[in-house]
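Dear U.,

Please find below the material for section 3 of the report. The protein was modelled together with magnesium ion; I have listed the sequence and SMILES used, followed by the predicted complex structure.
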Amino acid sequence: MLDINNIGVSFGGVHALSNVTFTMPDKGISALIGPNGAGKTTLFNVITGFVTPKEGSVKFGGENITGCRSEQVFLKGVSRTFQNLNIIPELTLRENMYLGFIGKEKPSALATMMRVNRGYWKETTNRINECLDFVNVTEYADMTPGSVPYGVLKNFELGRAFMSNPKLLLLDEPAAGLNLAEKENLADMVRKIQSMGICILMVEHDMQFISSLADFVVCLNFGQVIATGTYAQVRENKEVLKAYLGDEDA
Ligand SMILES: Nc1ncnc2c1ncn2[C@@H]1O[C@H](COP(=O)(O)OP(=O)(O)OP(=O)(O)O)[C@@H](O)[C@H]1O
Ligand SMILES: [Mg+2]
């Protein structure tokens, strides 16, 4: 599904990613872990076309997508959530949800008119309602984000990324800031999405959350891959223990 090969990214003197190489399985849920500043979000930005790597390649379904613009990557079937909420404050959640779909439209006026004739708006409205419902946001749909609880907004972001029915869904710290009940609810939604045949790669710091969901784990530290494997394998890895606990405790 996703082949990351020798990716290197620098921001001035900071080597955010160096020689990052791994293959994500074609199915299931994978997790990208590592301490703060390890380069996890930067790698998401490389995959989704927000950052162009100075070296290396990204292949999605066998196709080289390195250097593709973010909207091109989206059209190929990759969607994502952001580490910090990315919701337009002046729009209602329903209107914001539509933005999860908008890149899927073809730009020509004729195509748009044909869609109107074919009930395009009806289909889109149905899909928006379905996604709002799927992530339990329906009762907040006509409110703006400022008057909605944080946990609901996190769910909303998942729903918006799911809106386009992607092949690969990237989630950047989906459980951050959620309480235990909200995390359990999120885990159920993630499992449901995966059971629809959508691959998931998530960045997450909550190890309990990862251990209950992820089939495959990659650990980054200082921009480099230090371990890959099952959660149990990665958890026991000496480099991983050192990265999280420091030399003395490893
Ligand atoms: N746009 C940027 N300009 C300069 N430096 C950046 C930029 N984006 C990231 N960095 C740096 O690159 C490194 C990796 O950052 P990144 O955000 O990818 O880490 P992360 O693993 O997602 O961390 P966290 O767990 O805190 O979210 C850090 O040293 C960060 O300061
Ligand atoms: Mg990050």
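For the text of the report, you could mention the following: The first strand starts at residue 2 and ends at 11.

Regards,
Y.
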